[in-house]
Amino acid sequence: MVDTHLASLSNQLMLGAVLVYVVTMVAYAGELAFARRRADAEVPADRPRVLVGAGGPETDEAAETDDAETTEAEAEETDEPASGRRQLDWGRFAILMNVVGWGLHGAEIVTRGMAADRVPWGNMYEFVSAISFAAVTVYLVMLWRYKVNWLGPFLMVAVVIALGIATIWLYNDPGPLRPALHSYWIAIHVTAAVTATGTFTVAGVATALYLIKSFVTVRPGGILSRVPSMEALDTTAHRVIMFAFPIWTFAIIAGAIWADSAWGRYWGWDPKETWSFITWIGYAGYLHARATAGWRGRKAAVVSLIAFGCLLFNFFGINYLVSGLHSYAG
Amino acid sequence: MTTSTDAPEAQTSPQAPRERPVGIGLLGWLRWGWRQLTSMRTALVLLFLVALGTVPGSFLPQRGLAPEKVSQFFQDHKTLAPWMNRLSLFDVFSAPWFAAIYILLFISLAGCVLPRSWQHYQHIRSRPPKAPRNLARLPQTATYETEAAPDEVLAEAAKVLKDRRFRVDSHDDHVAGEKGYLRETGNLVFHLALLVLLFAVGSGAAFGYKGNVIVTEGEGFSNALTSYDAFKGGKAFSSSHLPPFTVWLDSFKAAYLPDGPDRGQPTAFSAKIRYQKDLKTSVRPYDLQVNHPLNIDGARVYLLGHGYAPQFTVRDGKGQIAFQGAVPFLPMNEATYASEGVVKVPDAQPDQLGFIGLFWPTAVPDAQGKVTSAFPAAWNPQVALFAFKGDLGLSNGAPQSVYRLDTAKLKPLLMGNKVKPLAVGNTETLPGGAGSITFNGYRQYITLQVNHDPGRVPALAAGIVAILGIVTSFLVRRRRVWVRARADEGGRTVVEVGGLTLGGATPEFDAIAERLREAAPPTPDEE
Ligand code: HEM
């Protein structure tokens, strides 16, 4: 049933992916350390090019629009040519390594699935791998679209830690699934849950940076000065959560449909259900808080991080601490 | 509501009014209270309260999910448990305080969304608002000068905006355009769908029912209240709603991993059943599996669990057969299926007999020489029986669990070391001529759940609509663009373009401004 050659190939690919990710992390860190000072990092991003009128955000409505987002990418672009060879090399190398690591990681997941002849998310090791893969994928897409290089080093730290935990403590040989998982819904429900979790992780990193920046005074030339403005961080986190939230909602609904055929009811307050509901409320609360006067900014960021904490707890805490129908951790 | 910032004109109702009602009497207070309740801040707080309220439900044992764990908790925490019980902490999801929170949330949501839907409907039917006096104060602005006459500029602007599917109004000195109504529509649809979802879940629970029953191989079950081992009907349920079907279990098969680190993990369950919808229809076979429930007349039959029912023959003190049959034992350990059960023989003479039994599907001696089970499949089935005689306590009419022996009026016959494991076919003779018990073999049983929930399909539809609504609302942005053109003293035309995008600027504005500027013949000094 289980192809052991493929299984060990998959394990070697995982090892390779982790090593390359570590190199990526170091390269990103090098970029951070040697990059030219970005004096403009702290200046709120400027206005669109065609803008001629001098009107600042005086009206209520204007204050609520966050124009940082479109300009941030441009600011970054104009920044690059002037930034010297050293940075270019480190930055390019980091991205190259990142893509290579991502490829190995993807190959690890595919071979694992082929080895066990099923979707490659059936136990904790595989979930963590898939979630990390989703996070890196989202990051790479955002890198391409929005030039979020600054996110790289921090995300890589998170990914390397996660994959380390997965290989050292959560490892399980590939094997068949238990009967409750024999359903095509595993491909739908778990894929959605894993994608949303990985995406929320990216938002979590951006939000953590936002909060750190809001408390720590930024030294010019320090690491934080290379992270974009707080508005840009906020916008990035918000955008990513807006992407992940519907997917998370979908994962829960798909879970409910599945539960309706596997467990005899579509909702029964099983611990995992309860905590995915709590997580959902947390992110819904964030989206509302961000739009409510008096909650915008730091408070909304805290809500978002609490929601992320609930997500992590749902994943690790519920799988290991509480017994429920959803305990496939074994 | 997610996007109050996006709809400035809708903000009047959902925002929390800060002013207190001063001397305005009962009506004023009511209105004030209603405004408070339907404010977004209140909805937010209620939302967090619901989340917080579910937390104890995930850590404390719940009656609806695991009643046996609740009784265990009561035994372990004799003083604390009754207090927690008073706070409904073992029935969190049906607790009055939990209901209070979500009903308030429901009202708050409805009070916020319904008026806003009405406003939005009117807004969709209205025209784009006229340009503000000073376009330069908008977040996105552009100005340029051209040789073209103001009329031509405005006509061109109207065309450009219409091409981009703006809704356009032309005024004397300016053109106003607006688009992206779908954002608020999607947002409202999402929230309305959540209301429908809550309603569907609630009414489904009220009209539905759920029952559990054990069916042993070779036996059957008919859908009537009395057949169930456990049954729960909603508040509006009546037993006449039960469709009159019958189900028989022919055989059950479980497969397990025979080796490796996950040895004993189940890989497949399948129950061969036959069913009959009612007496007038024919009997049909069905292969009942996890993830493949059987639908009969709106009721759904699920395979929830399984277990072993050892078969016994009990002879009494007079040598007569007092009991013969299979007795379902409850699994104590999911990994080995070591099970426990009770045999009651009220017909035994001269004394009633009772047994507490242990069943091991794959019996092996452990390090101390005691028997344990090594595997969940029945490779070497054995039982051990503790025997009692006396009064089983069945005659006083009080209901008794079939899995518990009331030993108050019973005298132990075989206990401790005298209890020896029996293999299939073995007989244990009871001391003092009280009789004997023979272990004949075993049957398997399955636990079925039958339920009916009329809210499931509406709830699903609402869930799907909610996702579509939120995605639409996240993808679309509402934006307004105004173009004003007036002739200056030098005979040139000054064009001002102003844009307001609710919820963040888009590059679209730049494209429009660029396009207009390109279309207009430039003034000479610009060249
Ligand atoms: C209303 C029902 C359900 C809800 C709300 C739900 C929710 C979730 C969520 C949120 C996750 C992601 C977990 C995390 O990242 O921590 C998840 C994962 C998963 N779900 Fe469900 N689920 C439901 C039903 C089901 C059913 C019926 C099955 C299979 C019988 C199932 C199997 C899985 C598996 C295998 C995973 C990945 C492993 C894990 O994280 O535990 N789920 N579910």
Cα separation of the termini of chain B:
51 Å
| Residue fraction in strands of chain A | under 5%
Nearest-angstrom radius of gyration of chain A? 21 Å
Name the structural class of chain B.
alpha+beta
DSSP helix fraction of chain B: 25-40%
The largest contact between protein chains, plus residue counts on each side, is: A-B, 73 and 83 residues
Biggest pleated-sheet summary of chain A: none
Amount of beta strand of chain B:
25-35%
Shape of chain B: elongated
- Estimate nothing, just give the exact number of structural domains of chain A: 2
Weakly predicted, low-confidence segments of chain A: 37-83
Q: What separation lies between the terminal Cα atoms of chain A?
A: 20 Å
Instruction: Count every helix of chain B, treating DSSP H or I runs of 4 or more residues as helices.
Output: 9
Could you tell me the radius of gyration of chain B in angstroms?
A: 37 Å
GO cellular component, one term (chain A): plasma membrane
Transmembrane segments (chain A): 12-30, 93-115, 127-144, 151-171, 183-212, 240-259, 274-293, 300-322
Biased composition (Acidic residues) (chain A): 58-80
InterPro entries (chain A): Cyt_c_assembly (IPR002541), Cyt_c_biogenesis_CcsA (IPR017562), Cyt_c_biogenesis_CcsA/CcmC (IPR045062)
Which SSEs are present, and which pair or pack?
The complex is a heterodimer of chains A (330) and B (527).
Chain A: H1 4-34, H2 60-64, H3 68-79, H4 84-116, H5 124-146, H6 152-168, H7 185-215, H8 230-262, H9 271-290, H10 298-320
Chain B: H1 25-37, H2 40-59, H3 67-76, H4 80-86, H5 96-125, E1 140-146, H6 150-163, E2 167-170, E3 174-179, H7 181-207, E4 209-216, E5 220-222, E6 230-233, E7 246-256, E8 266-276, E9 284-288, E10 294-296, E11 299-315, E12 321-326, E13 330-331, E14 339-345, E15 352-360, E16 363-365, E17 371-373, E18 382-390, E19 410-414, E20 422-423, E21 427-430, E22 435-452, H8 456-475, E23 478-487, E24 493-502, H9 508-519
Antiparallel strand pairs in B: 1-24, 2-3, 3-23, 4-6, 4-22, 5-7, 7-8, 8-9, 10-11, 11-12, 11-22, 13-14, 14-15, 15-18, 16-17, 18-19, 18-20, 21-22, 23-24
Helix pairs in contact in B: 2-5, 5-7, 6-9, 7-8
The structure holds protoporphyrin IX containing FE (HEM).
